[in-house]
Amino acid sequence: MTTASTPRRESALVMSIRQNRGFYGALLLLAVLYIVYNFLHPKGFSTNVFIANTNESVALAFVAMAQAMTVIVGGLDLSVGSVMTLTSCIASELVRGEPWQIVFGCLVTVAAGTGFGLVNGVIIVYGRLQPIIATLATGAVAMGLALLIRPKPGGEVDLDLNWAATNSLRDLAETYHLFSDGEDAWFQPIAWVPVPLLIMIIVAAVIWVPFKRTVTGRTLYAIGSSEGAAFMSGLPINRARLWAFTLAGTFAGCAGLYLAIQTGSGNADIPQAGAYTLNSIAAVVLGGISLLGGVGTAIGALIGALILRVISFYFRILSIDPLMQSLVEGIVLLLAVSLGAVRTLRVKNRLELFR
Amino acid sequence: MFQELSLMPDLTVADNISIADPPRRFGLIDRKAQRERAEALLARIHCEDVDPRALVRDLSLSRRQMVEIAKALGKDPKLLILDEATSALTSRDVETVYSVLGELKQDGVGMLFISHRMHEVEALCDTLSVFRNGQHIETFAKGARSQNDIVKLMIGRDVSHQFPPKPVRTKPNTPHLVVDNLRWENALNGVSLSVGKGEIVGLGGLDGQGQKELLLALFGVLRGVDGKVGIGGADGLTGSPAEAKSGKNRIALVPEDRKTEGLMLPMSIADNLLAASFDRVSVGPFIDRSKEKQAVADAIKQLQIKINRPEDAVATLSGGNQQKVVIAKWLMTEPEIILLNDPTRGIDVGTKQELYRLMRELADQDRAILFYSTDYAELIGCCDRVAVMYDGRIVTEFSGAAITEEALVSAALNITVPISTSPGVPA
Q1: How far is B195 from chain A (nearest CA, A)?
Q2: What does pTM read for this prediction?
């Protein structure tokens, strides 16, 4: 019971919800969509379905997080899909052989993505080009490089890694013989957890969560909110923007690496790269990130990507024409964005709508 | 037509003039007719030198304003509202505009002419209305009031603000910020000024005489600034706000437009408060949560900012409290030189008084304060000295008891200065 003397303060959660309506809305939508999906699925609520679903979501989740970095600073990166494709082709060449070679290959793949992002950043920050057109060009370059590396689909990614990264923790442990005699007791309750889910969570936790707490990370939001005010406050604008595009490259590299491991090969697939780029923008918006910048988190983009994926899963279990998928995704996106536009009805000075 | 130009820079002059209702043929814009119409209208204001096919972005500011006038004339107005329409014109153009306006008057067009310039009002208008603080003060026929009376009406007699007492100076302050012959583009034409430690120096004059540019130049925002700036004896010309706020200079600027230059509106109050001093609450690259919290709490307490929680978006605050956030943000950097660009604009009287007290406290802590305000009463109440700017230079400086409303307003209108320097006065 709250006594009358205690000042009424809303709890931290309530406040967080009020300030991040888009994000929590997306989370709720995802939860509802996925629970309903499991009820409809003949083998719903099983580990196998869960693993298969997360497996298909990782690459898009990473690409969406890449896009989130650039959208938060008020930009847009049209090269994320191509960078993912390029890095997956690189991974299909390198991620095999001895264990050290595999680790080396993974590192080179992510580094390639990061490097490409850095190049994007340098072009945009020091070349003073608009992000859309700069990344449209560099995206085409990335695609060209991918085709050079892999004119035809193929490559052999290490099969053990493929198996371990796309199944449950138990399979991972068995693949690499982590436990000499049976499983330890602590491992039992978490043995069912899908490795792809862990990969998503770990990458987000290792890259995004600390980054958000740096001055550079905070500057990202400042730039997206009001670049003028950020500049006038003496914030490191150029550095922050460079980081945003570089980290976008890192995330795209992670997406490419996972895609190669998941499919066991590389494929310089142009339509696929384009679809990933466009889906990443949709995911970012669904996840509560403002395309004007300054609002939202990479975690939101991850949620947005999962929503898009869950929608596509419905088509497998319901007897809807798969050709309708694009239509339904489009409608969901429109509805989600329309909710965000309600705010403009409250603006009194109509000149402010254009600022 | 507006003081701030409403032309589209990437369209041609002819396109702009006929933008709202272009001549059409078979439903498509008739470019030839449009060009002829533009030529006719431009000829009417003696601007034959402007090519209707030229892009507006390639024209000089005064030519653009003439195009704007042509555009307004093209609508065949019954009522023409001119808001500072002559602010960017050369004296020859001003005379042309006067004669065109005279012709329009003959044709029975009603005109509302908004201006800061006394001689223009004298020359053009039949009836004058004085407005102050969004209120209509008085309307009278031309000649019914002397220039001094009008100035008094403009100032108003109400002394509603309480100002803290000024300290009595026994000896002059040692100059801390010294500006010598500062020049930039057309806005600054050789500004020389000094501000001592513990001193509040006001910048007066009409809006747009280079005061803002002076503050921006000192803060490192402008490129290609000529002249010398000394801070505590060392060279103090800075290249960027990041440089200005850090290291030896320690300059803070409370900018003109808090909504676009001062605040990141969607971000939290805490983030805004810390925006200029994240380095002070960081450990390595990371922002330390407890330090952050402490610094924010201190700042909110110091300026008595009325907030619900520091995590709320700064956009939810009232104008006065938003301005306090901007000021608190800069005080966190512990600046030695504080530049204030009209900080009391759009905030309530109570908060204004708090700011005046704060300014005096800061001055007593030996900071040098340069304070631009469009409100004469503020300059008189707060400043130890006031420098009045006109056309990019400082025309007069007043100190102590010499800072009076009449002195400031006449200096701002440049009335005491010989007529030859004020452009566009028709005989």
Answers
A1: 22
A2: 0.79
